[in-house]
Design a protein that fits this description.
Elements lengths: L3 E2 L2 E5 L3 E5 L4 E6 L7 E4 L3 E5 L3 E6 L4 E7 H4 L5 E2 L4 E4 L2 E8 L2 E11 L5 E6 L6 E3 L3 E6 L2 E6 L4 E6 L1 H4 L4 E3 L5 E2 L4 E8 L10 E6 L4 E7 L13 E7 L2 E6 L4 E5 L2
Length: 255
């Protein structure tokens, strides 16, 4: 994938290129890094991901600055990460979990340039969703949580009373948060959750903890046993876009 930072962009081919589109020149050319490649960048280098570790590579001086094993960040039996991490300023937020113990997981805040572990947010994690400049949200099944990275305060919302009457479980990878405290979600019926059908979308106001709107999209079954699912959502200019597994886009106007 292409990475962007200010006036820099990467291109992947036989080599990894960093192009400065203000100076109109290639500022770095080198081999692809690690077994899963660079996932984020700043003006100093790349955050790279391996099977068992994160590292930071200074492409100006062609050297690794730091490396963290997931098993060193979190003590457990089968420690791993799904590769979802985000950057806010010079800080990296990465979720690490124990595959053998569902209660053992944390999000770690790491200084990108030095590798210093600044904070551990125990019990907070999943697919991390940045919004509002300094906020990180996550949602799963019947819960949402928001981390304020300025204060390190975590606010949790139990949404069971809202969702259970409609047999909805939130998809932990397909939600969005807005600056005014709205959670736009993709959900699945509990009775069909095992086969992966995620055809419900809706809006929850976290400030009042109320379900503002929801609907189910009729998605025909696809070829090759593709599940009926909303595969992505995006909210922009008072419109909610839902891309589905049958290659259609549904657009809803928010009043």
């Amino acid at each position: 994938m292409n990475l962007f930072h200010k006036n820099l962009i990467t291109f992947n081919g036989e080599n990894l290129l960093v192009y400065d589109f203000e100076e109109k020149r290639i500022v770095h050319k080198g081999p692809l890094l690690e077994d899963r490649g660079p996932w984020a960048m700043n003006e100093h280098g790349f955050v790279c991901m391996g099977k068992s570790f994160l590292s930071f590579y200074d492409y100006h001086n062609n050297r690794h600055v730091w490396q963290h094993q997931y098993s060193e960040l979190l003590k457990g039996i089968a420690v791993d990460t799904i590769g979802n991490f985000i950057t806010i300023g010079d800080h990296l937020f990465v979720w690490v979990y124990d595959d053998k113990d569902s209660q053992n997981h944390s999000t770690f805040r790491i200084n990108i340039n030095t590798g210093e572990v600044i904070q551990e947010y125990k019990g907070f994690g999943g697919t991390l969703i940045p919004f509002n400049g300094h906020m990180i949200g996550k949602a799963s099944k019947h819960e949402a949580a928001i981390l304020n990275t300025l204060t390190n305060e975590i606010t949790r919302y139990d949404l069971s009373d809202l969702l259970n009457p409609h047999e909805i479980e939130l998809s932990w990878t397909l939600c969005q948060f807005s600056e005014d405290g709205l959670l736009y979600f993709v959900g699945s019926s509990r009775s069909r959750y095992a086969i992966g059908s995620k055809n419900k979308i809706g809006i929850i106001d976290l400030n009042t903890q109320s379900l503002l709107w929801h609907t189910a999209i009729d998605i025909p079954e696809g070829n090759h046993n593709i599940n009926q699912a909303v595969t992505a959502i995006k909210v922009q200019n008072n419109l909610l876009y839902a891309h589905c597994s049958d290659y259609t886009v549904h657009i809803f106007e928010m009043s």
